[in-house]
Amino acid sequence: MSYKPDLNKSVNLTIDGVPVTVPEGTRILEAAKKANVKIPTLCEHPDLCKRAVCRICVVECDGRGKLIAACANDVWEGVSIVTNNLRLFDTRKTILELILANHPQDCLTCVRNKKCELQELAAEYGIRESSFGRNDSGGKPVIESDTIVRNMDKCVKCGRCVEACQEEQTIRAINTSHRSHEYGISAPYNQTLLESGCVFCGRCAAVCPVGAIYEHDRTAEIWAGLNDKERLVIAQVSAGLDCALNKELALGCETAGTVTAGKIVTALKLLGFDKVYDGEVSAGISDSELSEELQKRISTGGLLPMITGGSEGVYQFVKNFYPDLADRLATGRNQRRVFAEVIKREYAASEKADISGIMTVSFVPGIAGKYGADGKTDIAITAVELARMISLAGMDINGLSESPFDTVKIDLPKGDSGAKKEMVCGFAQARKALEAVRKGENTSQWVEIKV
Ligand code: SF4
Ligand code: SF4
Ligand code: FES
Fold it and tell me: Which CATH number belongs to the domain containing residue 39 in this structure?
């Protein structure tokens, strides 16, 4: 019989001599937090399952010699836990030194410099040099589909990305491979991410504690555009960017004194953008185009439900996993592309601007919005990249006043907004909805997948 903790039952224990009472089933890590004790972690992530891979979080229990992982073990009645003594300090330091022996240690030029969990731990444990020397494999970063960069030389093999991709996103584009010193993370048969069925959701990058997986940074091209006086550079701000930026800047979301869309508009104007539009404009155009397509399908007896998604990855997902439903995918254009086309047409007509000289930049919350949205002069960048631009400009965005979005007059195609629509969030939910479509059990006219 599997162990099921009784959450109504209390467990009494001590952490470094401090008495603590927590519900049964609480992990040592969480019980320690209650006692205001911070146990260092590396493979642990609050959104993922217990893994106990790195062993940085080891603690002593009941004065016995055995060290156990605080992130993977629950407390029990009467246990006395020690989180900090010389033996534990030396053990953790040795583990860190072993990890660093297989790490390039090029923090100065790393994309995660000052935001890296390994760097933080090395600083905390006062590591100035590794007793194990350094094994430099000389691997190079690989840019995948202009969206994600993988630099496996920096991987600390924590397994977070694999779990996020396999269990949370249900995509299984990456996995662990080999054993012993060759153990690592890769796509099957060393394929590219695209070949392995990746849908570029960016979840692996979001959970990676170091600079091994990250967004392909295109801010240099934007700076070049902004510094070109002949060039019109136009921005659109997608919904959710303010929240993502607050997270990146470690500010609370949706509370007083945090970054709002209005402050982002001011910041972008100060950075040199000629116009800043609300992403709702292109979302509105895209929605109207889709409603028009749905109406046509309904009136001509076309395939229903129509399947849509806010990012290119959703289209990839359906083609990879439900190829039999691919002809239900809407033919509508990518929202970011819609924006680029409409804005260029508008400016070319009203200001006689040279279309080829217009650069459009879509600011999206995360990597999922980048995939398939980029072109030569049309770029999509994430909140992480925007935070870098703001920091480079030496701007305190939170202290800025708010400005309104620029406005643009658009004639929307007329679609019926009263469709029977089902909205699902995430790939796991999408699978349930698409299985129902497959079995003919889904009676909606439109299934929209949000990721
Ligand atoms: S981007 Fe998403 S689908 Fe691709 S490897 Fe990462 S988690 Fe998996
Ligand atoms: S790529 Fe990042 S998240 Fe994945 S195992 Fe390596 S360090 Fe962990
Ligand atoms: S944080 Fe507990 S084993 Fe990695």
Answer: 3.10.20.740
**How many Å apart are CA 257 and CA 234, to the nearest integer?**
27
Question: Which ligand lies nearest to the CA atom of residue 154 in the structure?
Answer: 2
Q: Establish if 418 belongs to a structural domain.
A: yes
Give me the phi and psi of 448, to 5 degrees please: -110, 125
Distance, CA of 336 to chain centre: 18
186: left (phi over 0), alpha (psi -120 to 50) or beta: beta
Q: Looking at ligand 2, which atom is closest to the CA of residue 158?
A: 8
198 and 240 inside one domain: no
pTM, rounded to two decimals:
0.91
Is ligand 1 within 6 A of the CB of residue 310?
A: no
- Tokens describing residue 393: 């400009």
The Cα 298–Cα 294 span in angstroms is 6
Residue 388 and residue 261 share a domain: yes
Tell me how far the alpha carbon of residue 216 lies from the centroid of ligand 3, in angstroms: 29
Q: Tell me the C-alpha distance between 217 and 234, whole Å.
A: 18
Q: To the nearest 10°, the Cα dihedral for 363, 367, 372, 377?
A: 40
Nearest to 112 by CA among 23, 241, 209, 228: 209
Residue 159 Cβ contacting ligand 2 at under 6 Å:
yes
Ligand closest to CA 158? 2
How confident is the model over 28-80, as pLDDT tens digits? 999 999 999 999 999 999 999 888 999 999 999 987 778 999 999 999 999 99
Q: Are residues 228 and 329 in the same domain?
A: yes
Ligand closest to Cα of 45 equals 3
Amino acid at 134: R
Helix (H) or strand (E) holding 94: helix 86-101
The atom of ligand 3 lying closest to the CA of 43 is 4
379-433 tens-digit pLDDT? 999 999 999 999 999 999 999 999 999 987 766 666 556 878 899 999 999 999 9
Residues pairing with 15 in the sheet = 18, 81
Q: Select from 28, 54, 99, 210 the residue to mutate for testing ligand 3; criterion: most ligand atoms less than 8 Å from CB.
A: 54
